[in-house]
Amino acid sequence: MRRDLPALTGLRFFLALWVILHHLTGDGQPLAASLSAAFPALLFTLIRGGYQAVTTFFVLSGFVLTRSYWNASWTRTALTKYYRGRVARVYPICVFSMLAVVPFILADTTPGMWISLTAHLTLTQAWFGPIPVKWNTPAWSLSCEMFFYAAFPVLGGFLVRRLRWTWILGTGAFACILTRAMWALGISDGIKPLVHLSDFLMGIVAACAFELVRGRMRGWWLYVPGFLGLAAAIAWADWLPTDLNTVLRPLNGLLLVGLAIGCRMLSGRVLVYLGKSSYAMYILHVPVMWWYLRTSHSVSPALYIAIVIAVSAAVYALLEEPANRLLRR
Fold first, then answer.
1. Which residue from 292, 313, 322 is spatially nearest to 16, judged by alpha carbons?
2. How many Cβ atoms are within 10 Å of 72's Cβ, its own excluded?
3. How far apart are CA 253 and CA 195, in angstroms?
4. What is the mean pLDDT of the chain?
5. pTM for the model
6. How far, CA to CA in Å, does 265 sit from each of 14, 210, 220, 230?
7. 100 contacts: CB under 8 Å, gap ≥ 6
8. CB of 201 within 8 A of CB of 155?
9. How confident is the model at residue 276 (pLDDT cuts 50, 70, 90)?
10. What is the average pLDDT across 246-271?
């Protein structure tokens, strides 16, 4: 079975870039005024919706894990190897990102700062609601990923063994309502790993659907309506009959199945490499901003983004990939 899906890797670069643009266009940020004036309101709304890329990352995580461990037999040895691999995937760059902002952490006088630091280093910060420090805000999603990784052998193994449309569609429907059911039961929206479990589950569902449809249709039949649906939902979110994430969840699944079937535009060698370095882009772009603002009183968005991409590509080659291989061994 072919496990490398280059279009999905290329997509990761644009998702990370979308998150960065979202942060640059926030209230009081350097691109907010210029882009809101230069672009139509609809396009600016789509740029500001970059925080939704994180939920797409969660769906993508479920998809890629399912494809990667499709034939896994979850023995004790296999589980040990799997969990070691998951820690190797996430933790080295997480620690590096925290080391990069040590001077700013030491200068922080926020009450409870050391408790927050412990939560960051143990990847548990998203379990406790909003974190009152801003050293590296995007790192909250790593708490979710580690929880998803822990749950995957059960969730993925269950659905892969029941590879029939009835199970796939039923589980997909369950994933669509799971978050709202949690809210109805009183589970706080601040407990992000539980709230976003439905996105990860949708990724597993999409990977199973991909197994049944690949070779039977062209990818653009799925990723074009998936992309257009996502854009429309984000642009006109106020018109939706339910919350935005519930609507985006199946559309993300549709997008990923189509791209996994094939999309040449996202499969070029350079774009795939940038996609591989997208985790470093995502987790390092705030630390890079801390240092950028320390050395410059004005922000050139183009220069800043170029620095983030260059730093991330170098960190991927020199640290992330070597550390990943070392820890896996």
1. 313
2. 18
3. 17
4. 92
5. 0.96
6. 12, 20, 11, 19
7. 284, 287, 288, 290, 291
8. yes
9. very high
10. 97
Name 206's Cβ contacts closer than 8 Å, sequence gap at least 6: 59, 62, 63, 252, 253, 254, 256, 257
Single-letter amino acid code for the residue at 89? R
Distance CA(60)–CA(306), nearest Å, equals: 25
* Residues 88, 197, 253, 212, CA torsion sign: positive
The residue type of 48 is: R
DSSP category for residue 218: -
Cα 255 to Cα 232: distance, rounded to the nearest angstrom: 14
Q: Encoding tokens for residue 31?
A: 């691109």
Q: What single letter denotes the amino acid at residue 32?
A: A
Token pair recorded at residue 42:
């609809």
CB 107, CB 192: distance < 8 Å: no
- Rounded distance, CA 40 to CA 139, Å? 31
Residue 105 and residue 114: Cα distance in Å, rounded? 9
User: Cα-atom radius of gyration of the chain, to the nearest Å?
Assistant: 20
- Residues contacting 308, CB < 8 A, separation 6+: 20, 281, 284, 285, 288
Neighbours of 60 (CB within 10 A): 27
**Contact call for residues 275 and 12 (beta carbons, < 8 A):** yes
Give residue 31's identity as a one-letter amino acid code: L
Whether residue 96 has pLDDT greater than 80: yes
Q: Residues 190, 129: contact at Cβ < 8 Å? A: yes
pLDDT tens digits for range 161-173: 888 999 999 999 9
- Those residues with Cβ within 8 angstroms of residue 183's Cβ, 6 or more apart along the chain or in another chain: 189
DSSP conformation class of 118: H
| Amino acid found at 260 | A
| Pairwise CA distance, residues 119 & 140, whole Å | 10
Polymer length of the chain: 329
